[in-house]
Amino acid sequence: MSPLEQRIRKLEDDLYLARTLVLELTGPELHDLLYPPTDLDTPRAAHAWLTAAMGKVLALAEVLTIEEPLCTSQRAVCPLCRGDANDYNRAGPGYKYPEGLRRHLLGANISTQCPVSKIALDLALESARIHAMYPR
């Protein structure tokens, strides 16, 4: 293995360790939801797994009821990254619940994807890539 290949391999290993550490920092309940299974065999399966996992994360969000002058809305801070919407018209913290948070978790409808769910997806896609290279 050339020095360049060794360096790339080390960087790949370091990236994997950093990704898994981020998932571990979410806590036991969320970590169990975020760590992809090893039997994902296609990118489609990886995306389907993420959609199901983010549905479970969505159900764990702490929903806040915000009183506005003309209506009441529900919002939730992302349970994974603790982020909220970059919306200057927002009525409170977090994302509109449930659709705004769902879009954030999945990166849907031009929303910026939650960086923690993106890590989970990247690990799932890597698992699918390895599974395709080395089928059982």
Structure, explained:
- The chain is mainly alpha-helical and 136 residues long.
- The chain has one domain.
- Helix content is 54%, strand content 9%.
- The chain has helices at 3-24, 28-34, 43-60, 99-106, 115-133; strands spanning 63-67, 72-76, 95-96.
- The chain has a 3-stranded antiparallel β-sheet.
- The longest helix has 22 residues, at 3-24.
- The chain is elongated.
Present the secondary structure layout:
Layout: H1 3-24, H2 28-34, H3 43-60, E1 63-67, E2 72-76, E3 95-96, H4 99-106, H5 115-133
Antiparallel strand pairs: 1-2, 2-3
Helix pairs in contact: 1-5, 3-4, 3-5
Organism: Dyella lipolytica
Protein name: Transposase
* Biggest beta sheet summary: 3 strands, antiparallel
Please count the beta strands (DSSP E, at least 2 residues each). Answer: 3
Low-confidence sequence ranges = none
How many domains make up the 3D coordinates? 1
Number of helices: 5
Classify the beta-strand content into a percent band. Answer: 5-15%
End-to-end CA span: 27 Å
Mean of the pLDDT scores? 89
- Give helix and strand order, one letter per element, not per position: HHHEEEHH
- Provide the helix percentage: 40-55%
Q: Write down the overall geometry.
A: elongated
* Overall radius of gyration: 18 Å
Protein structure class:
mainly alpha
Strand order of the largest sheet: 1-2-3
